[in-house]
């Protein structure tokens, strides 16, 4: 029985309000049980780092995600490994063999110039839904706010479905400082310049998730979410936690 007035959540095949989880190797049987209960509140599943390449029964896991209408894709580290070894052609065939039609273009570990990434997006979007990640995994690398905005905008304009803001699974790089604090001025500038419904903010910890929910609204796109946090994240989105209790309606403009 539903009787509370809660913030309105997107549902079904979401284009925003997305929860993107990171799978670091959860066993297939355990995943099957989790998806039975929580599959409807998961939209995207990233097979984290390069783990897909060494995952037993990876085809079964991909099939499980698809069964629950969840989009699976391989983490950017696997893309960067293939790029670094000049094996992108083989990587593309590998993804097609797994029937994965999303591909991430990132430069979190390997320094790939923006123009080269834009060329890759133009090439890959013929066969894949392309998502890109902006920001380095190295917390010591500085990137100006204007460069962040320019990269996110350029990648979207060139055909990326979404752009992910780097945060790692620890929340200590990219849009976070070394201590895990959110670079709020950077986030504010991104929100001023870019449609927030096209950005997936990596938010690995509940404190990060609550920040973005309160700052942007219940239908903010969040990534690098741990499977164990999926239900509590949905409760947060619905104003069912102290820190989001007085949650406003979605502040982001809706897609045209």
* CATH superfamily descriptor: Aldolase class I
CATH architecture: Alpha-Beta Barrel
- Rg over CA atoms: 17 Å
Secondary-structure-based class equals alpha/beta
Explained architecture:
36% of the residues lie in helices and 14% in strands. The chain has 256 residues and is of the alpha/beta class. It has a single domain (19-244), classed as Aldolase class I (TIM Barrel, Alpha-Beta Barrel). Strands 3-2-1-8-7-6-5-4 form an eight-stranded parallel β-sheet. Helix 1 runs parallel beside helix 2 (58-67) and helix 6 (145-157) packs parallel to helix 7 (184-193). It holds the Pfam family ComA. Belongs to the phosphosulfolactate synthase family.
Task: Supply the key terms.
256 residues; globular; TIM Barrel; 8 strands; 8-stranded parallel β-sheet; alpha/beta
Task: Give a short summary of the structure.
With 256 residues, this protein is an alpha/beta fold. It is 36% helix and 14% strand. It has one domain: Alpha-Beta Barrel (TIM Barrel), CATH 3.20.20.
What's the structural blueprint in terms of helices and strands?
Layout lengths: L18 E5 L4 H11 L5 E4 L10 H10 L3 E4 L1 H9 L3 H10 L4 E4 L8 H11 L4 E6 L10 H13 L4 E4 L18 H10 L5 E4 L3 H11 L5 E5 L3 H8 L19
Protein name: Phosphosulfolactate synthase
Pfam family, one: ComA
InterPro entries: Aldolase_TIM, ComA_synth, ComA_synth_sf
């Amino acid at each position: 029985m539903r009787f509370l007035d809660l913030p309105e959540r997107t549902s079904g095949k979401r284009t925003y309000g997305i929860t993107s989880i990171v799978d670091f190797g959860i066993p297939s049987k355990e995943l099957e049980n989790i998806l039975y209960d929580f599959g409807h509140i998961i939209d995207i599943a990233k097979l984290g780092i390069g783990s897909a390449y060494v995952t037993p029964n990876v085809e079964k896991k991909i099939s499980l995600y698809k069964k629950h209408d969840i989009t699976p894709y391989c983490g950017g580290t696997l893309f960067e490994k293939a790029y670094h070894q000049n094996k992108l052609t083989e990587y593309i065939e590998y993804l097609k063999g797994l029937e994965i039609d999303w591909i991430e273009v990132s430069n979190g570990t390997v320094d790939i110039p923006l123009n080269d990434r834009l060329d890759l997006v133009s090439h890959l979007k013929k066969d894949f839904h392309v998502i890109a990640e902006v920001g380095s995994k190295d917390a010591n690398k500085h990137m100006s706010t204007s460069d962040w905005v320019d990269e996110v905008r350029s990648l979207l304009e060139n055909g990326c479905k979404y752009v992910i803001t780097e945060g790692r699974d620890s929340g200590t790089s990219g849009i976070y400082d070394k201590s895990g604090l959110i670079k709020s001025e950077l986030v504010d500038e991104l929100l001023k310049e870019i449609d927030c419904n096209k950005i997936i903010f990596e938010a690995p910890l509940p404190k990060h998730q609550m920040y973005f929910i309160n700052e942007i609204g219940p239908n903010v796109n969040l990534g690098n979410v741990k499977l164990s946090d999926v239900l509590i994240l949905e409760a947060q989105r619905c104003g069912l936690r102290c820190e989001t209790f007085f949650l406003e309606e979605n502040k982001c403009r809706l897609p045209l």
